[in-house]
TrEMBL record:
Residues 1-20 are annotated as: Disordered. It comes from the Bacteria. The keyword Transmembrane applies. This is Heparan-alpha-glucosaminide N-acetyltransferase catalytic domain-containing protein. Pfam families: HGSNAT_cat (PF07786). Residues 26-248 form the Heparan-alpha-glucosaminide N-acetyltransferase catalytic domain. It comes from Nitratireductor basaltis. The chain crosses the membrane at residues 29-48, 68-89, 101-118, 124-144, 149-167, 193-211, 240-261. Keywords: Membrane, Transmembrane, Transmembrane helix.
């Protein structure tokens, strides 16, 4: 789960932007928050892998608090997509750069789908966090001209809609990605449009409201200088690479270890 694209000096909105306005200082705090989130993803998947390989007690991944932790990570990333779009495009969407980054994330999402189809065919990822980020980024770019209030209202409606309506017709993989299923099909990572894209719109609305009060100038003063802060900032700037590589690395280490200890 995660947005997850490498940071750049000029962003396109597909991931948390670190420049609030043209010529503004880099918002290191955005990189730091994204780094904390991707670190959480690695920990979350490590526990999942330990249970999968029999190296940990079964049941940890079904613990309600652990499930809540995973959802909080998804919320963080989807919210930061909205932050990104507003900060990256103060004068209108730069479609060329935006399109290149979205294509890259879309390709990564396709790779995840294909890889998990052959690895976990019964629960492959057909609409995970990367797929949701692509959808949310495209919709967010189209809605970017809207004022903060309308974005916040739209986001709120999308977030609460699945609590008000669901139908069996959405239970298949062909339609479950929308978010109105009564029973979701098995998947190792399902992040449907409703409610998660609403979180991105909320991020956009909050960011627009914050910029109207010049909060970005206050946030730009943050500069974490401790080794830990620098480490998380580095991870935030390379979150897509970490997201794509950490599971193959973890499973490549844990599966042989699990087989050895059996």
């Amino acid at each position: 789960m995660a947005t997850l694209a490498p940071a750049a000096s000029r962003d396109d909105g597909a991931h948390p932007q670190t420049h609030a306005r043209a010529g503004a200082p880099r918002l290191q705090i955005v990189d730091l928050v994204r780094g904390l989130a991707i670190a959480g993803v690695v920990i979350f998947h490590l526990v999942w892998d330990l249970e999968l390989t029999g190296l940990a007690l079964q049941g940890a991944n079904s613990n309600p608090w652990w499930i809540l932790f995973g959802r909080s990570l998804a919320t963080s990333f989807m919210f930061l997509v909205g932050v990104s779009l507003v900060l990256a495009h103060p004068n209108g969407v730069r479609w060329k750069a935006f399109g290149k980054r979205i294509a890259m994330i879309g390709l990564a999402a396709l790779v995840i789908t294909v890889a998990t189809y052959f690895t976990f065919p019964q629960a492959f990822i057909f609409f995970g966090i990367l797929h949701a980020i692509v959808f949310a980024s495209l919709l967010g770019a189209l809605l970017l001209p809207l004022p903060a209030l309308l974005l916040t209202l739209a986001g709120t409606v999308i977030v609460i809609a699945p609590e008000l309506y669901a139908a069996d017709m959405f239970n298949s993989r062909w339609l479950a990605w929308i978010g109105f299923s009564t029973i979701s099909p098995p998947s190792n990572d399902l992040v449907p449009v409703f409610p998660w894209v609403g979180v991105t719109l909320l991020g956009m609305g909050v960011t627009k409201a914050a910029l109207a009060k010049s909060w970005d100038r206050t946030l730009s003063r943050f500069s974490g200088t401790s080794p830990l802060s620098r480490a998380f900032t580095f991870m935030g700037r390379h979150s897509l690479a970490i997201y794509l590589l950490h599971q193959p690395v973890l499973l490549g280490l844990l599966i042989p270890l699990g087989n050895l200890l059996r």
